Amino acid sequence: xxxxxxxxxxxxxxxxxxxxxxxxxxxxxxxxxxxxxxxxxxxxxxxxxxxxxxxxxxxxxxxxxxxxxxxxxxxxxxxxxxxxxxxxxxxxxxxxxxxxxxxxxxxxxxxxxxxxxxxxxxxxxxxx
Length: 128
Ligand SMILES: [Cu+2]
Description:
By secondary structure, the protein is of the alpha/beta class. The protein contains 1 helix and 9 strands, in the order αβββββββββ.
C-alpha cells in the first residue's frame, strides 16, 4: 500500500514538472524571422527611377517587396538591409525583409541600365 502511494506521488510530480513544458510548447509565439509579412509593397523600376522612390518600413515587421521592371533589367540593392535582387521586365520578384534597426538606408540600381543608371535611387526609412 505504501509502495502504491509512492507511485502516485511520482506520477503527480511528473505531471507538475511536465505540464509547464507542454503548455509552453503550445503557446510559444512565432519568432520575427518566421513571421508572415504584414504588408506588401510594390516597387517598379523604370529608366531611370524607382516608383515609389521612397518607402517607410517598421522595425521588426516583415514586409514583402514585389519588384518589377517596366523596361530593361534593373536590380535593387540596399546593402544596409541585405537586399540585392534583380528586377525583370514583366516579372515579379518577391523579397521578404524584416529590418532590425532604425535608420535611413540607401538603395540603388545595381545593374547598368543606361546613361541615367546612376540616378536610380531608393530611400528606405526604418522607423520604430
Ligand atoms: Cu540601372
